[in-house]
Amino acid sequence: MNEEQFVQALKEQGIELSEGQLKQFHTYFELLIEWNEKMNLTAITDQPSVYLKHFYDSISAAFYMDFNKVQSICDVGAGAGFPSIPIKICFPHLHVTIVDSLNKRIQFLTHLSEQLHLDHVEFVHSRAEDFGQNPKYRERFDLVTARAVARLSVLSELCIPLVKNNGQFVAMKAASGDEEMKDAKKALTILGAKLVDKHSFLLPIEDSERSIFIFNKTKNTPKKYPRKPGVPNKTPIQ
Ligand SMILES: C[S@@+](CC[C@H](N)C(=O)[O-])C[C@H]1O[C@@H](n2cnc3c(N)ncnc32)[C@H](O)[C@@H]1O
Q1: Which helix (H) or strand (E) is 158 found in, with range?
Q2: Cα–Cα distance for residue pair 102/26, rounded to 1 Å
Q3: What distance, in Å, lies between the first and last C-alpha atoms of the chain?
Q4: Under a CB-based contact definition with an 8 Å cutoff, are residues 95 and 73 in contact?
Q5: Which of 113, 122, 182, 222 has the most neighbouring CB atoms within 10 Å?
Q6: Domain spanning 3-226: CATH 3.90.1150.10
Q7: Shortest CA distance to 81 belongs to which of 94, 95, 98, 60?
Q8: How far is the CA of 77 from the centre of ligand 1 (A)?
Q9: Which residues on adjacent β-strands are paired with residue 172?
Q10: Dihedral of CA 119/211/164/74: which sign?
């Protein structure tokens, strides 16, 4: 997907990019490639693939929900900034908090946000298991996103404690995710969320499958979740 196709594909979804926003994406691409030589940020490095599989794919969450009604987002395990930085470029009013357990990625994001002149962004080097127990962040966000971080049963425990009551959790998956959804049912009930929408679609050009799960938080999460680091990966809530 070249820049022109990127602009056109977003326009078809009702998202019109200004020259300034397009320039931000270009700078993002250049910095991603430059820093990728020093640290492992992405295996996808050619420009058309980055625009399709990172930028467009990240923004696809906005095809199914109205980000103009959202104020605060937390992106759990954003790595090189996906999906929240492309979303922030498109919706500059958002207050974005990113938590990632790898400090090198936090350093990249800090530099990136300076170069893109992003405001209202915060980057936190922490495991989500600790971050979710911090009263400054727990049950504070309108929306929590996660793309390609863990299975839904594990991911729910990391993300749902951060969502405020009546807020949403959006999980972005590369496959249908239906099996994962079955495994996560009990965890979702315990954590206080329920599935309200699921959208499956094909990425343009290469037709690979994507699914977006949208959960509403309906009640507070019991205090013991998320459990301490290491535990969720070994024993998802059964
Ligand atoms: C496969 S990468 C995906 C990055 C990005 N979301 C994307 O879609 O390209 C997973 C990221 O999650 C982070 N991560 C994994 N487990 C985590 C945890 N428990 N708390 C915080 N970050 C975590 C890793 O450091 C890594 O940056």
Answers
A1: helix 152-159
A2: 25
A3: 41
A4: yes
A5: 113
A6: no
A7: 98
A8: 3
A9: 147, 212
A10: negative
Residue 15 CA to ligand 1 center (angstroms) comes to 27
Could you report the per-residue pLDDT of 114-164, keeping only the tens digit for each?
Answer: 999 999 999 999 999 999 999 999 999 999 999 999 999 999 999 999 999
How far is C-alpha 126 from the geometric centre of its chain's CA atoms?
A: 16
Q: Which residues of the chain have pLDDT under 70?
A: 230-235, 238
Instruction: Looking at the CA of residue 233, tell me the nearest atom of ligand 1.
Output: 19
Q: What is the pLDDT of residues 87-104, one digit of tens each?
A: 999 999 999 999 999 999
Strand extents, DSSP E, the chain = 72-76, 95-100, 121-125, 141-147, 163-173, 193-202, 209-217
**What single DSSP character describes residue 206?**
T
Q: Which of 58, 149, 170 to mutate to test the pocket of ligand 1 (most atoms within 8 A of CB)?
A: 149
Pocket test of ligand 1: the residue of 36, 73, 100, 159 to mutate, having most ligand atoms within 8 Å of its CB, is: 100
Q: Is 94 within 8 Å of 87 (Cβ atoms)?
A: yes
User: Angle 103-115/19-36 helices, nearest 10 degrees?
Assistant: 150
Complex confidence, ipTM = 0.99
Q: In angstroms, rounded to a whole number, what is the distance separating the alpha carbons of residues 110 and 44?
A: 21
**Torsion sign across C-alpha atoms 105, 107, 110, 116:** negative
Listed residue (108, 104, 82, 42) closest to 73, CA to CA:
82
Q: How far apart are CA 79 and CA 90, in angstroms?
A: 19
